[in-house]
Amino acid sequence: MDLGLLWFWIVAGLFVGYFVLDGFDFGVGMSLPFLGKDDVDRRVLINTIGPVWDLNETWVIVAGASLFAAFPEWYATMFSGFYLALLLILLALIARGVSFEYRHQRPEHAWKRRFDTMIVVGSAVPAFLWGVAFANVVRGVPLDAGHNLTGSLLDLLNPYALLGGLTTLVLFFTHGVVFVTLKTDGEMRARAHRLAIGAGVVTIVVAAAFLLWTTLAYGSIASALLSAAAAVALVGSFLANLRARSGVAFALMAVTIGVAVLSLFSSLVPDVMPASNDAANSLTIANASSSQYTLTVMSWTALVFLPLIVGYQAWTYWIFRKRITRASIPVEPVGAAPAGR
C-alpha cells in the first residue's frame, strides 16, 4: 500500500471534518448582525454552538499536526509561504474564542457589542482566508528548486483565489444559517429560514462559478465528477430548505462542503503543491512525504485514536441536540458562563 497516498487522503478527510464542523459555527458567528435583533437573540445564536465550537476547532489542529508529520516538506512550504494569511486566521480565531468567553462578563451594552463585532470578524476572516489559501494551492504558486515560495502576498490575491475565498465565505454563512434553523424555534427559526433561502441563491451562483473555473483550469475527471456531486448536493440543500426540511438541508450542506473539499484535493494528485513557474519544482506526494516507518507508525496511531475522537464528538452533539429558544435563555448575571458551556 502506498502510505503517502493514504495519508494524503487522510489529511483531506481531516480538512473535510474541519470545514464541515467549524464551517457552520463560522456561519453562525457571521449571522449575528442579520439574525440577532437584541441581546437575547444574540445569546440564542451563540448558545447554538456554545457546547461545540471549541471542539470543532480541534480538527484543524489535528489536520495541521498530521500534515506536519506526514508531509513535512508540504507543511514547511505552505506555512512559511502563507504565513501572513495563516497568522491572520490564528489571530481571528483567538479573538473569536476570547469573545465567546468574555462578552457575558459585564452587563454594559457597549461591552457586549464590541465582543459581538469580534465574533463576526473572527468568523468571517478565517472563512474567507481558508478559501484563498486552498485556491492558491490548487492553482499553484511560484516555487524555487528548494520548494520555497518566491512570490509576494499580492500574488496570492489573484482573481481565482479571491473567488475561492468568497466561495468558502458564502458556503459557511449559508451552512451556519441552516444550522440555526435546525437548532432554534419560533421567530428566530423563521428569520433564519428566510435568510437561508436568500443566502442559498447567492451561494449557488458563487460556488458554481468557482467549481466550474476549477474544473476547466485545474481539474481532472475525478475532480469534475466530485464537483458535479457537490453542485447537486448544494441545489438539493436549497430545495430542502424551501420545504423547511432543516435536517435534510443541513446534511446536504455538509455533503456539499465535504465533497467540494475532496474535489480540490483530487485535482492536485499526484502533486500536493504545484509550482506555477516550473513543474520540476512542484511538491508531490512522493517527494513531500515522510519515511515509510513514520507513516506506518502514524497509520496505527490513527487507527486507534481517530475513532475515539469521532465517537466523542458524536456523543457531544447527541447530548446537546435540543433546540434553543428565547424562553430557554435565563437572565444572565454578571460573570456567568454562556448556557451550554
TrEMBL record:
Record-level GO BP terms: aerobic electron transport chain
Coiled coil region boundaries: none
Transmembrane segments: 6-32, 74-94, 115-137, 157-182, 194-213, 219-240, 247-269, 297-320
Ribonucleoprotein listed as a keyword: no
Organism superkingdom: Bacteria
Keywords of the record: Cell membrane, Electron transport, Heme, Iron, Membrane, Metal-binding, Transmembrane, Transmembrane helix, Transport
Cellular localisation: Cell membrane
Iron is among the record's keywords: yes
UniProt xrefs under InterPro entries: Cyt-d_oxidase_su2 (IPR003317)
Pfam family, one: Cyt_bd_oxida_II
A cellular-component GO term for this protein: cytochrome complex
Gene Ontology MF: a single term: metal ion binding
Membrane topology: Multi-pass membrane protein
Similarity section: Belongs to the cytochrome ubiquinol oxidase subunit 2 family.
PANTHER family from the UniProt entry: CYTOCHROME BD-I UBIQUINOL OXIDASE SUBUNIT 2, CYTOCHROME BD2 SUBUNIT II
Protein name: Cytochrome d ubiquinol oxidase subunit II
Organism field: Compostimonas suwonensis
